[in-house]
Design a protein that fits this description.
Length: 348
């Protein structure tokens, strides 16, 4: 590197007199061999291949010095006698922007070689996720992976342009060092046969941004997930079914039960017609009262129009319980007991 240095020179004559001289030495930085442009997307990598030659009849080793964020390379580089080889410099940025850098190769016998570097880090392009199709009243989702390429834990902020239709799970994102974290983007439709979209951005000042564009379309509902319920034979229990109005406008619905056995399943409603606000929820109570050890089924239907209706299948499981000790086993510690016995299944 260039600079101004001073040195002292001492002379001694025959009479043992000493004379001191101070010498100023001015050196100039070596001119760069070339200017190298390195361009990469953040959290990706690109490389430059720099050719070096050894004109000597003996092997040599260069010390390698480089400056600039995101540069990775070996600190030493060796060449065989009378040979040419390529040094590989990797550029893997974490934050978008443009900066300057340099790389130098130093050997006492062949000298010093420098290269200027133009370092250009770009944001990753927005990722278009496949469109999700989902029945009204249900949810669909994408899983994505967010990777932390650093040795430090990072917290991610995120922005969601359409929180009505899309949710981020989990809502607090922490990336452990050198690990990837799965993230669920969940879609809930609020329209029928209409494409709903959103932009989602995950961001951290140290490791950059991830940008996603997502679309979804609502479909006519068919049959919802079964709702199991169980109780003992001769007893009665109740449960609650939650119906959410998927639309952003008020709606009127009618509720009834099909395949109904009045002795087993029953709706606990005083009326069957309800008004629900935009994205509002209706709680629908029902009871289950089994008399025999059989599995019972019924369906609660929430109807908005002739074509638009939701069917919730109910699955009732009867149980037999005992209030006393039915079997008693006794044996010594560490000694197995084998015994054959009969089980009576009441109501079977």
């Amino acid at each position: 590197m260039g600079g101004i240095y001073t040195a002292s020179i001492t002379f001694q004559d025959q009479n043992e007199h000493f004379v001191w001289w101070t010498v100023e030495v001015r050196t100039e930085s070596p001119k760069p061999e070339a200017v190298i442009d390195l361009r990469a997307f953040i959290r990706k990598a690109t490389s430059a291949e720099i050719s070096l030659s050894n004109p000597l009849n003996e092997p040599i080793t260069f010390e390698v010095f480089f400056t600039g964020d995101g540069l990775i390379g070996d600190p030493m580089f060796s060449l065989e006698p009378k040979s040419v080889a390529t040094y590989n410099l990797v550029f893997s940025p974490l934050v978008a922007g443009e900066s300057q850098g340099s790389i130098g190769f130093l050997n006492e016998k062949v000298g010093e070689f420098w290269y200027d570097l133009n370092l250009i880090a770009e944001e990753n392009p927005e990722i278009n996720l496949p469109m999700l199709e989902c029945e009204l009243g249900k949810i669909s989702h994408h899983f994505i992976e967010l990777e932390n390429p650093t040795g430090k834990e990072h917290y991610l902020d995120f922005k969601n342009s359409n929180p009505t239709n899309f949710d981020i799970i989990p809502d607090k994102l922490i990336l452990p060092p050198f690990e990837s974290v799965p993230v669920k983007i969940q879609y809930s439709p609020t329209n029928l046969d209409v494409i709903e979209s959103g932009n989602i951005v995950f961001e951290n000042a140290m490791i950059g941004k991830w940008r996603y564009y997502i679309e979804g379309k609502g479909l006519l509902p068919t049959v919802m997930e079964p709702s199991p319920i169980s109780t003992a034979v001769g007893s009665s229990t109740s449960s609650m079914l939650s119906f959410k109005n998927p639309f952003k406008e008020p709606a009127t619905v009618e509720v009834h039960m099909t395949d109904e056995d009045a002795k087993i399943f029953a709706l606990l409603l005083k009326r069957n017609k309800f008004n629900i606000g935009p994205l509002g929820t209706l709680q629908i109570p029902y009871s289950f009262s089994p008399e025999t050890m059989t599995e019972s089924r019924a369906t609660i239907v929430v109807r908005m129009t002739k074509q638009l209706q939701w069917k919730y299948p109910l699955r009732g499981i009867a149980e037999s319980t005992s209030n006393q000790t039915d079997f008693h086993f006794k044996t010594r510690a560490r000694k197995p007991l084998e015994e054959q016995f009969e089980m009576h299944l009441p109501g079977f």
